[in-house]
Design a protein that fits this description.
The complex is a heterodimer of chains A (716) and B (288). Chain A is of the alpha/beta class and 716 residues long. Chain A is 57% helix and 10% strand. The relative contact order of chain A is 0.09. Chain B folds into 2 domains: 54 residues, no CATH class; 228 residues, MetI-like fold. Chain B is globular. The two termini of chain B are 13 Å apart. The chains are: A alpha/beta (716), B mainly alpha (288). The interface between A and B is large, with 143 and 141 residues.
């Protein structure tokens, strides 16, 4: 016993002497990640009392990982993130205020310091800023346009086939410089929405006038802009510092501040993203964390980051470095920083983007004028940010839940009594089923029940209030939208059903047809064909879905190229519901048929070939044989995949998100993408999102019951 | 087995299949193009053929000469991440197959109270939208102490794969004639022996499908992996791939190269498994 205590003491001592571990998370890539890790490594070596543990996190999962990990004490002590989340995270209690002493020694630009304030408190330490600037191809533009009049007149002088300004005009973020240049904005001093301001409308009409005058390429997005700029087919583009690494080495380019809006005389002002270091409120080593943050924004670190990774640092002193003084690219970015607007960090800002993006697209498409589109956007914004419903009294719900639980237990007990003998006799069967059943209950049913309970709450800026079934009533009684609006639950439900049926038909049809072709034993190279045909399933669909989106491009897409070579008119695929829906469907069919093909190949083996052969001897034709013999025999082995496939498709939104992105006007969105939007881009309305998820569950549940009836069986 | 049909039919078959392959593979040419072009831009050109061929992206990916993957200890990160992925996918396949084979056999061969409800339950779990489950699942994994472990991830993945696998296997088991088992039972074989020695070997096609499915469930998943794993040495390949997608911009060249590297083992696995897809009942002892 004393031996164990002795060992224990040894361990304790060893524990006390090991340096304190400080966890640092970031989502940088490439040169930025390299220089950050160099700085951290050096810091680690110089400070023997602490040891740094650095984790790069994929950006896509970063925010949700932070939000899950920090409150469970699994998070980092220090992490680097854009300042936009400060409001939400301060409300959620995830981040610690930064002491003024930490900031003042770093000589920060006031615009960056302003960005990290929320409710008069400083929450982040600004490390680097990012904003949009104007990129010019020097071979096409001899002098960068100073104002928008010059921009328009430049358009006259450029050769045919060259776009004057290729930038993602339909992206709300890229529209912001114009909007602020016209004097627009989203909130007044009291924080009220100013969506419908004439300045905002003017900025949208201005963007449309650029399109009408032929300055912009068709269906401009970031990928197309890069492509055109790199091929000398675009004189200018608008992008941020991240674009530098994408520019082809053959292009002679220069960087300039965005032009002055001739109509107002004000410069176009982009949004400023301030990448900042944060200290977790749950960190147990805030002093050490503070010291590290101070070092990260300090002169040495800032200079090194600017020199080696080309970061635009808000540390004024760092800019006295002679090399930086002579860098025209960095200086242009710095000039733009001083003429930019920090992205508002209040939580409601997340609800601005989606209505704004729709407004920009509506105007770009020519469906509405600026003021009409903003009228719509203002309504949408109001709905997204409307105050939570009245708190409900939880007691009736608790009583009801308790009564339900009692009834359930009673029912279960009686069943148990009734089947007692059978249950005991079937103990072997239960043993077979138990492992899977237990795993499923624990890992899927339990999390779902917990998640579903959230639907009874309303989430507003970090606080949950119990509202009973109010979220469900809002959705079911279509309180926010008219039923025919493309944002209403019922419209989206219809689209979702169409999406599911269309996919199912095509996946099974094509998959089964190919399986029929590929099962013939006399067929040579069939293994080879099979492997080639599962390629769409094997490649991560993030990249292939975006390639399909590119193939549907109006001007440069392969599909319109094919249509034109057949003498048909090119189609603007994402401008109307039917073709946009079709584009999603085609992409998802391409992605989904290999799975059905593989399942069908397996299922076809369950059919004795003799039966089919016998039918063929009896003179049944190929089609008859398939329809009357093969298909019915195939049903039991294929049905699970069909039923599950339809359930998956119902909830499969990444293709929609990546290909049509809901265009036009969110009409091609499906229910699950709405649930995601409520959770992440409409002011974090988790309760509402959860209510959507619960409704989706009930719809699918009803579908499977309906399926039972139709199939005339008990299961399925 | 059929004898080979007429030459005309064979030619028709091959033409059909070749055309399909062309259409199916056409979009993937852009993946190849992006992977072999030493630029990080997304290729929008109508021409899918690479104009320059360079292995730079593959080299950066495989040598780990890329700073967004940590290199503190100077290890060969790529190999490590590849191994993590393979290990987790393999574990998922094993766990998923064990769970689903036993469950499917129980569902197929026994009648017991709650069987229909059980089958429905497996189906129902597939209807739970992931959006509400992420945080509760995180808390659960944390409570169980499985947050930063390969086993925890494999368990989460196999619970995603089990319902399909069970349903699919059950559907297949149902088509195996019971006479065979009865004969074995008369010979004194236990249920377990019948299951492992007779039913499973006869179900190779369905087993191949479920194995491939379980493997794929784990192999390409990144959201759970990126959220649960907080140790760069435990990262899987999809997490690394996903880290090429940034806030503002994506390193497409590296992503495409990674996509090709990640999909190759899947195709090899399928090539190995597909023989089983075509030697099912007809090749076995129960013809007719």
């Amino acid at each position: 016993m004393s031996f164990i205590v002795f060992i224990g003491c040894l361990l304790c001592n060893a524990w006390a002497e090991t340096p304190k571990t400080l966890k640092v998370w970031h989502a940088y890539r490439d040169a930025e990640a390299q220089v950050l890790e160099d700085i951290l490594e050096q810091y680690d070596e110089q400070h023997s009392s602490i040891s740094l543990e650095v984790l790069p996190v994929a950006y896509d999962a970063y925010a949700s990982k932070l939000e899950s990990a920090i409150p469970r004490n699994n998070g980092p002590d220090v992490f680097i993130y854009a300042h936009e989340k400060i409001g939400s995270w301060a409300e959620m209690g995830l981040i610690e205020p930064i002491s003024l002493d930490t900031l003042t020694t770093a000589n920060l630009s006031s615009v960056a310091v302003e960005a990290v304030q929320y409710n008069q408190t400083t929450y982040g330490a600004p490390m680097a800023v990012k904003s949009l600037v104007l990129y010019c191809n020097n071979d096409l533009v001899s002098k960068a346009p100073v104002n928008t009049d010059e921009l328009f007149s430049l358009n006259e002088t450029l050769p045919n086939g060259v776009s004057t300004l290729a930038y993602p005009a339909t992206d709300a973020y890229f529209h912001m410089p114009w909007l602020f240049g016209f004097g627009g904005g989203f909130f007044d001093k009291e924080g009220n929405s100013t969506f419908e301001s004439p300045a905002n409308a003017d900025s949208l009409d201005f963007m449309k006038s650029m399109d009408t005058a032929g300055l912009l390429p068709k269906e401009p997005d970031a990928a197309l802009s890069t492509h055109l700029f790199n091929n000398g087919q675009a004189a200018m583009t608008i992008s941020g510092p991240w674009f530098l690494s994408s520019i082809d080495s053959t292009i002679d380019f220069s960087i300039h501040p965005l032009p002055i809006i001739s109509a107002t005389g004000k410069p176009a002002q982009p949004l400023l993203t301030v990448e900042s270091a944060f200290i977790s409120r749950f960190s147990t080593q805030k002093q050490e964390a503070s010291a590290l943050v101070k070092h990260l924004i300090g002169l040495d670190s800032a200079t090194k980051r600017a020199l080696e990774a080309g970061q635009i640092v808000p540390n004024e002193q760092a800019w006295e470095n002679p090399t930086l003084q002579e860098d025209p690219i960095l200086l242009a970015f710095k000039a733009q920083m001083l003429n930019s607007i920090p992205t508002p960090n209040i939580p409601t800002m997340t609800a601005v983007w989606e209505p704004m993006a729709r407004a920009v697209r509506r105007v770009h498409r020519g469906a509405m004028t600026g003021s009409q589109a903003l009228e719509q956007a203002a309504i949408e914004f109001q709905i997204y940010t409307k105050p939570a419903p009245e708190p409900a009294n939880p007691i009736p719900y608790v009583v009801l839940a308790f009564a339900g639980l009692c009834a359930g237990i009673l029912w279960g007990w009686r069943q148990l009594q009734h089947w007692k003998k059978d249950i005991w006799e079937s103990r072997t069967a239960y043993l077979y089923v138990a492992p899977a059943a237990i795993a499923m209950t624990l890992l899927t049913a339990l999390p779902f029940v917990v998640g579903a309970l959230v639907s009874l709450f309303a989430h507003n800026q970090g606080a949950f209030t119990f509202v009973g079934l109010a979220n469900f009533f809002d959705i079911i009684f279509a309180r926010d939208w008219s039923v025919t609006s493309s944002l209403s639950f019922y419209f989206t439900l219809m689209v979702t059903i169409g999406w599911t049926l269309g996919n199912l038909f095509l996946h099974v049809g094509i998959g089964l047809a190919l399986a029929m072709l590929l099962r013939e034993p006399w067929l040579r190279f069939r293994g080879f064909y099979r492997v080639l045909l599962i390629v769409p399933w094997a490649i991560p669909n993030y990249i292939t879905a975006l390639i399909w989106k590119g193939m549907f491009h109006q001007q440069f897409g392969a599909i319109n190229g094919l249509l034109q070579s057949l003498g048909l008119e090119p189609v603007s695929w994402f401008a109307q519901f039917s073709t946009s829906f079709a584009a999603n469907l085609i992409t998802n069919t391409w992605l989904g048929f290999p799975f059905m093909m593989v399942v069908s190949l397996g299922a076809l083996q369950s059919i004795p070939r003799d039966l089919e052969d016998a039918a063929s001897v009896d003179g049944a034709g190929g089609w008859q044989r398939f329809w009357h013999i093969t298909l019915p025999l195939l049903k039991p082995a294929l049905l699970p995949a069909v039923v599950l496939g339809s359930v998956w498709t119902f909830n499969m939104f990444n293709v929609i998100y990546l290909v049509s992105a809901g265009e036009p006007d969110s009409s091609t969105d499906i229910l699950i993408s709405d649930a995601y939007r409520w959770a992440f881009s409409r002011g974090n309305r988790y309760g509402y999102a959860s209510a959507y998820a619960v409704l989706i569950f009930f719809i699918l549940f009803g579908y499977s019951k309906l399926g039972n009836r139709i199939a005339g069986r008990k299961t399925i | 087995m059929n004898n080979a049909p007429s030459i005309a039919k064979q030619i028709l078959w091959h033409t059909l299949l070749m055309l399909t392959c062309l259409v199916v593979l056409y979009p993937t040419l852009w993946v190849l193009k992006m992977a072999f072009t030493p630029s990080q831009a997304f290729t929008m050109s109508p021409n899918p053929w690479p104009t320059t061929v360079s292995l730079e992206n593959f080299w950066v990916l495989i040598s780990g000469d890329d700073p967004s993957t940590p290199n503190f200890d100077g290890e060969w990160q790529f190999l490590r991440q590849f191994w993590n992925s393979a290990f987790i996918a393999f574990l998922t396949t094993i766990v998923g197959m064990v769970f689903s084979c036993t469950a499917a056999y129980g569902m197929s061969r026994f009648r017991f109270p709650g069987k229909e409800a059980g089958m429905s339950f497996f189906l129902i779990t597939q209807m739970f939208p992931g959006v509400v489950m992420a945080i509760p699942l995180y808390i659960l994994m944390d409570t169980l102490g499985l947050l930063n472990s390969a086993f925890g991830l494999a368990l989460a993945y196999s619970s995603t794969a089990v319902p399909f696998c069970t349903w699919n296997l059950k559907g297949y088991f149902d088509t195996i004639p019971k006479d065979l088992e009865d004969a074995a039972r008369i010979d004194g074989a236990s249920q377990w022996v019948i299951f492992t020695q007779i039913v499973l070997p006869l179900s190779k096609p369905a087993l191949a499908v479920t194995a491939l499915f379980s493997f794929m469930t784990a192999w390409n998943e990144f959201i759970l992996a990126a959220t649960f794993l907080s140790d760069a040495n435990a990262y899987t390949l999809p997490v690394v791939l996903q880290s090429y997608i940034g806030d503002f911009e994506t390193q497409w060249g590296l992503f495409a190269a990674g996509a090709i590297v990640a999909s190759t083992p899947v195709m090899i696995l399928f090539f190995v498994l597909q023989k089983n897809l075509v030697e099912g009942l007809t090749a076995g002892s129960v013809k007719g």
